[in-house]
Amino acid sequence: MNKRPKPTGEYAVGTFTYTVKDAREEVMDKTKMRSVASRVYYPIDKDSVKDLKPSIGLSENMAKGITKAFKIPINYEKMKEKGEIYSECYENAKRIEGVRFPLIMFHHGMASYREGNSFLCIELASHGYVVISVSHSMEAACTEFDDGSVEWFDKSILKKQYQPFLKGAVNILKLSRFKGSDSEMAKRFDEFQRVYSRFLMGRLDEWVLDNDATLDYAKENLNDLIDFDKGIGVCGHSMGGNTAYRLCCDKEDYVCGINIDGALFGDYTNCVLNKPFLQVSCKSNEKVVARVYIRHTKPVFKALFKDMQHIGFSDVKHMMKPGLTAGKLDPDLMHENLCRCHLEMFDTYLKGIKNEPELISNDVITVTKYEADM
Question: Which long-range contacts (CB under 8 A, 24 or more apart) does 254-257 make?
Answer without folding.
Answer: 255/230, 255/231, 255/349, 255/350, 256/345, 256/346, 256/348, 256/349, 256/350, 257/233
